[in-house]
Amino acid sequence: MTFDVLKRIPRKFFALMTKGHLQMGDVLINKDGAQTGKVGFYEGEFEEAAINEHLFILRSTNGAINQRLLYYYLLQRDTQRSIARMITGSAQPGLNSKFVDAVRISIPKSDLEQKYIADALSILDAVIQESDAIIAKLKIVRQGLLYDLLTRGIDANGEIRLHRAEAAHLYKLSPIGWIPNDWMSGTLNSWLDGKPKNGYSPQEAAEWTGIQMLGLGCLTLQGFQPLQLKPAPRGDKRLSNALLSDGDLLMSRANTRDLVGMVGVYRDVGTPCTYPDLMMRLRPSSETSAEFLQFVLQAPAVRRQVQAHAVGTSGSMVKISGKIVSNLAVAVPGKTEQNQILALLAAGDARLNTELEKAAALRDLKAGLMDDLLTGRVRVTPLLAEAA
User: Fold this and answer.
1) What total of structural domains would you count in the chain?
2) pLDDT for 78
């Protein structure tokens, strides 16, 4: 659980509340909205706290089940599917309190066995949280490094240039701010070979066809991730124009204002693959590369331009055109310095990718362990014997 959005209420109002007061160990579940069915565990982070009308509190009757174990049962895949079936409404999904009658779980009779199962999963959760904290720090470091490299670059000695406050003579003013003297500034089309090209989005096939299509979710804040692949229909000749090659630079042209214009360098997924109509393919000129332009387009100064020029009446979906993208103001160093910048970023990304892989492996381990322990397929009886 996170506490990014908290509301303070008067103590008198809190005292008058007849329900909703939180206790350490409470299990919480969202009852409506986009997060309907999401589950959390309250560790007692505050001396006094309460929930609003959008949450349910779940507490076991007479301590029949360990509260933390109850939390893990609600996270289990089968339980989540049962809860999902009880959610009603599409525009405003909701869950009523009777959902508990539709959820069936089998629990160990022994309080000690319940505790051991909950403790084992809690230990793994703690390791996952530590891993996530490392990843969060590495992402912050990467963003800082990216900003420095795309505003100060690398000097002849292979070091990041002195800041303008320390060496103003090394910089000049450009449409996107101060940049090193020997960098070029202009619109993006100066570094593109042709206009951006939209992809193609046919109806996905109901079965495997040997050709896949990217979904919009494949472009993330971290670049290209093969997270959303769909089977392409057979025999559609229009797919040929949208076939991807390893190293193609892609950019989303529709999304929320925060996410529109996400970029990534496509990496081969093992089968022929196409990109959708809501993405554009950019072909870099010989003076740069897809890898470097990806970072240029991730720079805060460029992201602000994308968000400012995106158009649309819907608050949840805005679009950018190929013309908008081509006219983005950018600054680019020479090819040698580009390669030096890429080498520094690659070193940082290698560490981040290692941690991301570790975190993914830990989550897979947790899913398997939950399935084994919560179904009784694997017992904690050896631990119980030791305790006896």
Assistant:
1) 3
2) 87
